[in-house]
Amino acid sequence: MNVLLDNLSLYGQGLLGTVELTVYSSLLALVLGFLMAAFRVAPVGSLRAIGTVWVNVLRNTPLTLLFFAVVLGLPRFGLVLPFTLFAVLALGCYTSAFICEAVRSGINTVPTGQGEAARSLGMSFPQTLGDIVLPQAFRSVIPPIGSTLIALAKNSAIAGAFSVVELLGVYKPLSERGYSIIWTFVWIAVGYLLVTLTISALFHVLEKRYGVAR
Amino acid sequence: MAGDALIELRGVNKHYGALHVLKDIDLTVGRGEVVVVIGPSGSGKSTLCRAINRLETVESGTITLDGRPLPEEGRALARLRAEVGMVFQSFNLFAHKTVLANVMLAPMKVHKAKKDEAARRARELLDRVGLASQADKYPAQLSGGQQQRVAIARALAMDPKAMLFDEPTSALDPEMINEVLEVMRQLARDGMTMVVVTHEMGFARSAAHRVVFMADGCIVEDRTPEDFFTAPRSERAKDFLSKILKH
Fold it and tell me: How many domains does chain A fold into?
């Protein structure tokens, strides 16, 4: 118990760092994920190709590698940003590939006749997707998106290795100060549970609210 | 029927893999004409119907609507589809929207109609198909026949020049078929240009100006209903009619 009470502000900073990384990366991942899912089902071949390449590259390479590419690679091209922003970029882009596939699988659950009816009425592709298909796909993508964002929260620990303040990194100064490593990690785990269970609860509410089948 | 052509297909071909579903189809539908397409299943009649608003692409040949060839994709195609109503076998009402919203949506999105104007027009159309009292229900709460009548109202809300019906009564219980056919007969009497793929021979006899009989991807006969039903020329049509008119 001492390790937490003695270092409350350190733990607090770490937790705040993880929450920040999770929230910003989630927003980026959701925006990019929905956009890429739209690309993947678009009637334009080049957009579909962009979506496919995006998903296959990001989903099939290790996140740590992506972190190295962003943190070490982008400055080579003159793009120097705070480490936290690099981390948000890496986490957001990586997770967007999984969000994209969750959304796409949801789109596939909507009967094709719905889209055909919309198109036969003269609605454009963005209208068909936005007004007809996605609202009906939404309820089936809530659970997988929840899981993906929980994975994102845990993946944010990798950012600690790249000089970003986050929860897992708290153990370093604490072990230097001689605290029990076990209790240090127990409280770190509790911090992660706080974040992930909050996400779970949020998505449970969303599912209750929008998951009703009509 | 003479008069100017609204829908014109010339030398249209389509394959599904090795299957040649449309073979050099030529078909002209005049303004105000009701053409019923019949034939055994797999004869290509649904594909023909869906090709007219490019829900199915074709490999060769031309399809023109009101003198303009069907555009490839994009906005021009959407504009053209807005002028041709389509009614599906499986209704395809938007499941997440009320009956009224189903009918209002396309005029608001495509024609940028004002909300109250779209609602007024939608209620008028629902009244015309006898469903004014169901406006606030969701599609799943309606019977099949009611859903199909809403689908017709939804298509009419765009003030189409022509209406395509792809087996509109095939998914309905027998007792509900008539309420849908009655709406279609009324539409035909009002002078709507219609292409109707159906197995309802009674409707073909009473409402059609022409009957097009398809088999194996070809148009085998294209004649008036009296001629076709009393004296079919081809063996294929005789065989088909003997099978369906028995019961």
Answer: 1
**Which chain B residues are closer than 8 Å to A119 by Cβ?**
55, 78, 81
- Expressed as residue numbers, the domain containing A152 is 16-165
pLDDT, residue A137, reads 94
The alpha carbon of residue B177 and the mean position of all alpha carbons in its chain are separated, in whole angstroms, by 15
C-alpha span between B85 and B53 (Å, rounded)? 9
What gap in Å lies between CA B210 and CA B92, rounded to an integer?
A: 28
pLDDT in tens, A188-210: 999 999 999 999 999 999 998 88
Chain centre distance of CA B192: 11
Q: Is the pLDDT of residue A93 over 90?
A: yes
Q: Is residue A46 part of a domain?
A: yes
Residues from chain B that touch A117, judged by Cβ atoms under 8 A, are: 86, 88, 92-94, 151, 154
Sheet containing B19-30: order of strands: B19-30, B5-16, B60-65, B68-69
Assigned domain for A9 exists: no
Domain-embedded: residue A61: yes
Q: Measured between CA atoms, how close is A45 to chain B, in angstroms?
A: 12
Per the CB < 8 A criterion, the answer to whether B132 and B123 are in contact is yes
The answer to whether the beta carbons of residues A66 and A58 sit under 8 Å apart is: yes
Q: Would residue A7 count as lying in a domain?
A: no
**pTM metric for this prediction:** 0.86
User: What's A148's domain CATH number?
Assistant: 1.10.3720.10
